[in-house]
Amino acid sequence: MAAVAAVAVARRDEVAGAVRLVTHVDPLLLAAGAACQAASLLCFAGVWRWLLHAGGARWPLHRVAGVTLGSNAVSGALPGGAVLATAWAYRQLRRRAVDPTLAAAILAVAGALSALGLGVLGAIALLASGPAARGVLVRAVVVLVIVLAVAAAGLALVRWSATVRRIVRGIWARGARRYGWTRNVRTAVVRVAAQAWHLQPGVRHWISPALQALLNWGFDLACLVLCMRALHVAVPWPGVLAAYVLTQIPASLRLTPGNLGLFEAGLAALLAAYGVPARQALAAALLYRALSFWAVQPIGWACCATVTLHGRREENAQPPAGTGQSTGPDR
Known about the structure:
79% of the residues lie in helices and 0% in strands. The chain is mainly alpha-helical. It is globular and about 70 Å long.
């Protein structure tokens, strides 16, 4: 953060020019960008809602959106936000009588689908970036296929060979005797994996959540493009797609709360590398962050407070075990 502040001071003329550009934004395009950001957040909530329904918990969309927006606020504002947001979301699911294994499976599968959606955008960016980048994509796919083939061969050996199963069990038993906590981890991982596997059998059923996860990123990218157009900045296709993906990948590390400073500087630098003038690139990054982060934070914290208070009331209102009353999530 100190380094980002030092760079901002050293380049204060560009920062001042970017701020002046933001004051002359097109309001209609800015409103369209805000609508895209709202659609992105609803798509992410839709992924959670589908997973909850697949696990037997019938939640309305507004309740799921409250949890996802609250989780997003915790993740974006606090140090170690991703871990704290996961713990908070898990707690809210448990307070509403969602089975602990199902809650953990929802969090894991939602994260995996989100990563898959960003990966698809990254592949599109590589395909659109010329022959050299396509060669990188081909090599990455070959490596992935080899890894999957090796993993499949290993699973087949474990399934069909009693000798391999004995060896694996022996190694695991020695590790469990030496490190007792590994037994609990194994049990938890197996339960969560089994729950995730049985959420909805068949590939066809997973098209809907996978598409919503992709649209979550797609609408967010559209918000960035509309912010650029609202500032009358020429959009460098396909450079803006590559800049967006390359910025979002390290953003998952949460090196600073909400990646403040790092995200803006990284996105502006990448846009400038693809031909956008430095002041315009910084102005686009600042305006995009105003819609995707700063405007969402107060809404998310309001949802966080509301969901937490209601969750405590529902938890306290649950009758003790053995009374014969149902405490399902459809109250």
